[in-house]
Amino acid sequence: MKHYDFMSISVRIMEKTGFNSVLIHRKSNNSKQMDSIGVRFTFEAERTTIERTDAKPLLLQSNEGSLADRALELLKQLERDVPISELAAGLEMPEEKVSVALSRLKKKGQALNVARGTWRYNIS
Q1: Cα-flanking dihedrals φ and ψ of residue 40, to 5°?
Q2: Which of 77, 45, 47, 42 has its CA nearest to residue 59?
Q3: Shortest CA distance to 56 belongs to which of 79, 36, 41?
């Protein structure tokens, strides 16, 4: 049996000595979707260093990650029931688009619609 995963890599912040990037697990045929991973690359004269970092700030400030990915990260970060208006403001997107993204997350079991217009990250 073949196994296919799809992961995107997006550079977020470039600097003279390195850059930050995020690995976003977009699709998997045979396993659950994994959380995004932040990675920092540092270049020095004699070596290159790669270290894991927090992906949340990179996802939230970027428009490259899908809206669903960014909405999920924001729900995780807030750790409470959140009105869609607050999510839309935090993501700087119209409520209608955020609503569609949240519906997709709900179908995947990643978000809960706890009341009309109020959402929460599904921990299970």
Answers
A1: -115, 125
A2: 77
A3: 36
DSSP single-letter state for residue 34: P
pLDDT in tens, the chain (124 residues): 444 455 555 555 567 788 888 877 766 677 777 778 888 899 988 999 999 988 877 766 665 568 888 898 889 888 899 999 999 988 888 999 999 999 999 999 999 999 999 999 988 7
pLDDT at 6: 55
Distance CA 32, CA 80 (A): 23
Torsion angle of C-alpha atoms 25, 62, 69, 38, degrees rounded to 10: 40
Integer Cα distance of 50 and 110 in angstroms = 30
Domains of the chain: 1-56 (no CATH), 66-124 (1.10.10.10)
Phi, psi of 69 (to 5 degrees): -60, -45
Half-sphere exposure of 95 (CA within 13 A, CB side): 8
Q: For residues 8 and 35, is the Cβ–Cβ distance under 8 A?
A: no
